């Protein structure tokens, strides 16, 4: 069986990736410090003989040594700090956990046994506020407006340079907002949490007009595996997202309806810098996905459908967790 490493494999996207890999008969090692990932996401695989879990931090040399000399054919690098808002108050967190951690991982494989392919989950925020919507992969110049986006772009550059210098293949996925049942951050998760605490009022960061693309995790998985199978470039860069947008106010209505709440007052904070939810919040995002579609993929769910399914799953999960049925 092929040996595959997934950094951040206990996280939201990472755990679904692990599920998909193991059902394909792959030998999977997950490396995760569990700072944002959850062991429960991969618990069902812990006893599998073709699965290994290493609790470790890429910033800790002793933990990285636990990877040993294993000849991983493919490395999925998802380990990162996922919270965009952190960068506006503590930029060093994103620099260390995204850029430095990526360089350490690349150096480990340069000096041991390099994989044939490294796949990296980047983000739509590398584009900043583009003047072309939908935005293609070759859009330039890239001007991130968040520290998170800047560090992801730096990681892309490092991975590209290492791939060309040390002769391995790299695939970089610039993801739209990915949503699904295990998500524990992002707008829809935040709304559910807030409405659990106060059922008649919902605070919305910004002016409510932030308009973005959302993709369900099931569609994301199909796109990632298709790219792995069919990408032929030494360094391939692909946008992955839906082909439409939905604004924050509409998302609020979806969540309140799913929770069965009536007459909820929406309270907009007004935001910063023209109605953004926070410093670095991109107000308008839609990716051009024609390049990944040319390989044979297209999303099954649009943004609204993805958000509705996610709201249903998050509300049901929390209701069951509280000993209640919706």
Structural topology:
Layout: E1 3-7, H1 12-23, E2 27-32, E3 51-55, H2 61-64, E4 74-77, H3 91-111, E5 117-123, H4 147-166, E6 169-175, E7 177-179, H5 187-197, E8 201-204, E9 211-212, E10 214-216, H6 217-230, E11 235-240, E12 246-247, H7 248-258, E13 265-268, H8 290-293, H9 303-321
Parallel strand pairs: 1-2, 1-4, 2-3, 4-5, 5-6, 6-11, 7-10, 8-13
Antiparallel strand pairs: 9-12
Overall description:
The chain has 326 residues and is of the alpha/beta class. The chain folds into 2 domains: 3-178 and 214-240, 3-Layer(aba) Sandwich (Rossmann fold), CATH 3.40.50.720; 183-212 and 245-283 and 303-321, Alpha-Beta Complex (UDP-galactose 4-epimerase, domain 1). It is built from 9 helices and 13 strands. Strands 3-2-1-4-5-6-11 form a 7-stranded parallel β-sheet, sandwiched between helices. It has a two-stranded parallel sheet with strand order 7-10. α3 (91-111) runs parallel beside α4, α5 (187-197) packs across α7 and α7 (248-258) packs across α9.
Main sheet: strand order: 3-2-1-4-5-6-11
In CATH, what is the class of the largest domain?
Alpha Beta
Quickly count the domains. 2
Unreliably modeled segments: none
* CATH fold type of the largest domain: Rossmann fold
Percent strand: 15-25%
Shape: globular
Q: What level of helicity do the residues show?
A: 25-40%
Number of strands: 13
Span between N and C termini?
43 Å
CATH second-level architecture of the largest domain: 3-Layer(aba) Sandwich
The Cα radius of gyration reads 19 Å
Mean pLDDT: 94
Q: What structural class results from the helix and strand content?
A: alpha/beta
CATH superfamily of the largest domain: NAD(P)-binding Rossmann-like Domain
Total of helices: 9
The largest pleated sheet is described as: 7 strands, parallel
Order of helices and strands: EHEEHEHEHEEHEEEHEEHEHH
